[in-house]
Write a structure and sequence with these properties.
The structure is a homodimer. Chain A has about 475 residues and is α/β, with parallel strands linked by helices. Chain A has helices at about 5-25, 40, 55-65, 85-100, 110-125, 140-155, 160-165, 185-190, 215-225, 250-260, 295-300, 315-320, 350-385, 415-430, 460-470, and strands at about 75-80, 135-140, 175-180, 200-205, 230-235, 260-265, 290-295, 305-310, 390, 400-405, 435-440, 445-450. Chain A has a domain at about 100-355: Aspartate Aminotransferase, domain 2, CATH 3.40.640.10.
Chain lengths: ~475, ~475
């Protein structure tokens, strides 16, 4: 094992490696040419019995691992949604790693708990939520959404589902609603929470990919008439396929009427609520019971860092809490023990990177970067719209543009268009010069161009557009 | 926002900070003197509008955060179970942070997925599990145990619980078993999975804090006779309170008889299965359906890094998988997409630190450290046993000794003994020179002395023993 003197030298070596990596990102392929099995095949099948020098480990890292990585902060990473980091976030992670603190309870690291409280308060103010909300960090929006569904389940059954399971009165009557564009994590959460996939109503969307509120009203009424219990509605601000925006205010009204839990999934778009000009998209989210958005997506505090806000922390704790003797502490009644605010017991010190990032950018600095990304998405949109052989397939209120190639000679419903676009995307990505992903929108294959890297500039976008045109 | 030139300089500064931190750990208090609210009160109530220089951020970190941290790798950290890190692990986390990759699917970072596959294979061999097991990393044992309970639920109901919820046939008949010493995460998992707390049978243990197999046999038989369905048994190797060891082989036999899922919770002790001389404690775990142990506890790959092994990955994927259009990739049928092997969608590159740690120590090096920790636990045990006013309260097969102060003049059942120990522990911890925690064992207040820091030496243990004696 290396000693601390060697550690110091290696840490300096990696400090340079990190800076070099960020400085040279643009020169790399965005995604690797790796074929399935390449990396595993290059790693020994058995662990080494004896210690190996760090030089050899690092050389193998550069030879085997690095060429097999997708570079999420490459300026031409336009895939999925951004998974951002930033210099300040990386520095915070260095400190987090060095301290190695396990932050499950207040007393296992008081400063971690209280920094998290302070950062959730900062975030709450930044996105303009009222002080009726209290926040906690989760690893991912998927986990937060599962927690929300569990909270909804327990509110609807007065904690009898948790106590009695399927035998609880009403347990077999609970229904959850969301749009067909809602994220797959909703389906997964409903399944894992034991509500039953068949009890998730995925309702149609309008031409802007927003949940049709009339359909929701009708579904809730009809379920209610049949003796079912509308348990929860998931409203999405910024759906994954196309960043559609549900009418949260109208949905909130229906939730109040039926006593259903309102969970707002703003995993991607939530960060943009720091921009006053985009706040209208979030109208009504202050009526929610729970809200999730991911600073790790578009607020430069790297994965994992998902912000979960609730109106009633007591209900959250009653749903997720546990208090065995070996975790008790004398000051438990005066502090927050975040182990009781989610699924895992152990917790990393995630708030540190938020603190570093918000101070390194300043709120105005964060706004500036987000506005530039949104401006660049506007550039993409214009380029696509101006070209006779390409078309935009959805509104683009944030940083994502969904489009496809459709030569003027081909009809909108020609099934060959999908195939052309599948091939186009494969060629663009195979070049290693950009990475985009796809979805289907109203049955049409759509290419998703998502802007979010801290390093992206207009020249990258324009060069990628040239690449796309060349690749048809 | 700092530019990359500033980032490089700051990264070097933090490289020194990290090395200084590790070198001076021993000079710090183990746990802080922080009172509830101290840290939060020292942080501004609102976020800064403008960017702040990193010097100021770092100064605040050292002034506000650092004095409020518990130092988990302090040589005199004897609390809970270890939450270890090591130089190689920290270096790996630096690279992970710099790349910021999101490793949900094979194609979002092929090398991350395949390194994880290779490391789970190394771990499997290291702990002596047969190749009928396949592993995946989870964040915590709590999450892994929840996944295990969900897998059990779905096997028992042929996936109808997931599909139909509480209305599924048999959904209200499922029973889960574990000992009274089983971890609180079992209770939590049973509750969250919708099985119902009332359906968890926490059975008595023997004088060694092992699940009484006769009681389990009787409970399963009796439930079966009453039309209930024995769904899962959680066997623990190394319970949290006292590191009790259940007879996994005998429990496995009962599970086979009743078709129940066998989950082995070896969160803490699992790492010791790399020691051939401790393998007898794990006899029968190869019969399990699922096993969890935490390299982040006692294998120097820092939190979060929890190893979950299953016999049937197909069943795991059927329980936790989701495959929406926007995540599909051309090579999906040839690769592992670990997003489908647990609860969260997004995933950090956790395998890198395992790779670095195993190579930096070598398997023999890891064995050496674990053996030294276990030897030191033996020293503690001897010191306690030799003292007329102290007594050991449980066997100590691994690195934990449970003991209490009981002056020779006081009877074993004198209720004042608990109070004396509560005060003793408070004095020891308030000194800042060591940190221990407590539990209750068979109704008695017990102090837990858990050995696990990479920096702990016999002199630390002996000095802490002096401190304990002085603090009565």
């Amino acid at each position: 094992m290396m000693d601390l003197k060697e550690f110091r030298a290696n840490a300096h070596r990696l400090a340079d490696w990190m800076a070099d990596y960020l400085e040279t990102l643009e020169q790399r392929r965005v995604s690797p040419e790796t074929r399935p099995g390449d990396v595993r095949g290059a790693l020994p099948a058995t662990p080494p019995a004896e210690a190996e020098p760090f030089d050899r480990v690092m050389a193998d890292f550069e030879r085997v691992v690095l060429p097999g990585m997708t570079h999420w902060d490459h300026p031409n990473f336009y895939a999925y949604f951004p998974g951002d980091h930033s210099p300040a976030s990386i520095l915070a992670e260095m400190l987090t790693a060095a301290m190695g603190a396990q932050c499950m309870s207040w007393n296992t690291s008081p400063a971690a708990t209280e920094t998290e409280q302070a950062m959730m308060e900062w975030l709450r103010q930044m996105v303009g939520l009222p002080d009726t909300f209290t926040g906690v960090l989760q690893d991912t929006a998927s986990s937060a959404t599962l927690v929300a569904m569990l909270e909804a389940r327990e509110r609807a059954t007065n904690f009898r589902f948790a106590k009695e399971g399927a035998a609880a009165p009403g347990a077999d009557k609970l229904v959850v609603y969301g749009s067909r564009e809602a994220h797959s994590s909703i389906d997964k959460a409903v399944r894992l929470a034991g509500l039953g996939e068949g009890r998730l109503r995925k309702l149609p969307t309008d031409e802007r990919f927003s949940l049709r509120v009339d359909e929701l009203a009708e579904a809730m009424r009809s379920d209610r008439n049949e003796g079912m219990i509308p348990c929860a509605v998931v409203a999405t601000v910024g759906t994954t396929s196309s960043t559609g925006v549900d009418d949260v205010a109208a949905i909130a009204k229906l939730c109040r009427e039926h006593g259903a839990w309102l969970h707002v999934d703003a995993a991607y778009a939530g960060s943009t609520a720091i921009l006053p000009e985009l706040r209208p998209h979030f109208r009504g989210w202050e009526e929610a019971d729970s809200i999730v958005f991911n600073p790790h997506k578009w607020l430069f505090a790297q994965f994992d860092c998902s912000a979960y806000f609730v109106k009633d922390p007591g209900h959250l704790i009653a749903t997720c809490g546990a208090n065995p003797e070996y975790l008790k502490w004398s000051a438990d009644d005066q502090v927050a023990n975040f182990r009781d605010w989610g699924i895992p017991l152990g917790r990393r010190f995630r708030a540190l990177k938020l603190w570093f990032v918000i101070r390194d950018f300043g709120v105005e600095g964060l706004r500036k970067v987000l506005r530039e990304h949104i401006r660049l998405a506007g550039v993409v949109r214009e380029l696509v719209e101006e070209h006779p052989d390409f078309e935009v397939l959805a509104p683009s209120p944030f940083g994502l543009v969904c489009f496809r190639y459709r030569p003027a000679r081909m009809a909108a419903d020609d099934p060959k268009v999908d195939e052309l676009n599948r091939e186009l995307l494969a060629r663009v990505n195979a070049s290693g010069k950009a990475l985009l992903t796809h979805t289907t929108l109203k049955g049409k294959y759509a290419i998703r161009w998502s802007i979010g890297s801290l390093q992206v500039q207009e020249r990258h976008v324009r060069a990628t557009w040239e690449l796309v045109q060349r690749s048809v």
